[in-house]
Amino acid sequence: MDLQTLTYIVVGASFALYIGIAIWARAGSTGEFYAAGRGIHPVANGMATAADWMSAASFISMAGLIAFRGYDASIFLMGWTGGYVLLAMLLAPYLRKFGKFTVPEFIGDRYYSQTARIVAVICLIVASITYVIGQMKGVGVAFSRFLEVDFETGLFAGMGIVFIYAVWGGMKGVTYTQIAQYCVLILAYTIPAIFISLQLTGNPFPQLGLFSGTEDGTPLLVKLDQTVTDLGFKQYTAQSGGTLNLVLYTLSLMIGTAGLPHVIIRFFTVPKVRDARFSAGWALVFIAILYTTAPAVGAMARLNIADTIQPGEVGTVEGSLAYEERPQWFKNWEKTGLLVFEDKNGDGRIQYYNDKNPEFAQKAEAWGWQGNEMVKVDRDIMVLANPEIANLPNWVIALVAAGGLAAALSTAAGLLLAISSSISHDLLKGVFMPKITERQELMAARIAMAGAIGLAGYFGLNPPGFAAQVVALAFGLAASSIFPALMMGIFNKRVNNVGAVAGMLAGLGSTLVYIFWFKGWFFVKGTEMMANTPDNWLFGIAPEAFGAVGAAINFIVAIVVAKATQEPPEHIQRLVEDIRIPKGAGAATGH
Predict the structure, then answer these.
(1) Which of 174, 350, 353, 464 is deepest in the core (most CB within 10 A)?
(2) pLDDT of 310-338, one tens digit each?
(3) Are residues 494 and 572 located together in one domain of the fold?
(4) Do residues 163 and 176 lie in contact, with contact meaning Cβ atoms separated by under 8 Å?
């Protein structure tokens, strides 16, 4: 069976499964729409959380980052997994004990302020919309290649699928759908990795294959280092950039993880407080399967693509691939516009090298090369293209397509649910129209989700970067705004409503200004105010790493303002002490 037909069958069957589950588990009340009736087993919730967490950034983009950045991309592995430890130990059980439906609801009640609740909704929407843009980019990439449509058509198709099962099923439907999506995505990620590890090293375990020898006995990482440095790129296993930026980037990802609302609301779905902590533990187990495989996938993908395009001795005619002899996978990805070749010297051969390296560029010029002719190699294609580059069976390639879509759709659904519940439950029911019926609130939640899907689709068509880069920005926004408010709400009974609001606004505002300034979205007469380069960053801190600084600003402003103003009422201080007592489940009031 040809690849196209097989892909349609595998992807279509997975979509039918998701929609069928959503229909079977359709939410009939606000409790089921927001928190799945609080009846999800911790192991099942851990699996759903893993799918919610392992987004297009994890499945599609992270290995691409590792492939092109090497050692420097380890910050994503450390930050994203370390954040779950913080979540399990410091937030999940206490928030579950509080017994509410949403993060803004907790903040509003803890800080006894509708203003605090509204500010929390704004922070949640800003972070979640930024995050969901990355998922929509991933959906478009996967659809455009494997269904052989353009990026825009692929994105709209993905929006339609999410609309059906997320709007229909709510948290109950999304939870069971995400369990199915986890099974699909983890099989789709690990099976090709096993095949490729066997091809390159003879070891069936990718985690071990990364440190094993290749066919000629050379360790894989040593061979990769030699291959990329021969092409003028930096050594794969070497660190570059400042230590301060590395630490802050990792910290921003960690506390951003612990502050992401779509992850936090997953812990509102379990029956008891202890189940929330067990859920986080199981989620780490399920996540670790993919995260320990990703470094091998990235390294092997980089080696395969370099060896394919530059198969022989660098600088010789025979060492480069003739464009007319390019393999089928190359042609397939050219159709999407995510892989672009430009014959700069007219020799009909592909020169792939780092023309930003002055020393190597001089050598290349002597060979008659006039610049890197692979003018676009989108990092987000690496995982999806890897099985094709390695000539794996068609069924494996089709499975990878289904897995990439499952990863993007599962996280998109969780984010959109967090957005819709904050609008319908926190703003509409909690602030502006408290007397609406449950039926009206449920309808408002579905309308809000439909609107969020439309907005996310629009930004997905015009993303500010590749998937993992956009997601990193979302983590920074969550780290600087939501995480400090939650931590102080649980562990500092002296922080009051004025301090919390001031801290959230200061943290979010400073991070947004820094991101927008250096991402090139501010313009003066059509000219960027300041180039997004390490030389211009404040103390060498990347925009994606500034969330940790924004969090520190949030903590400092909140504590200083709280000390300068009236302390919280006595019943609020008792409430904070009660939250930290590790007993009781706390009944959900939904108010």
Answers:
(1) 174
(2) 887 887 777 788 999 898 888 888 887 88
(3) yes
(4) no
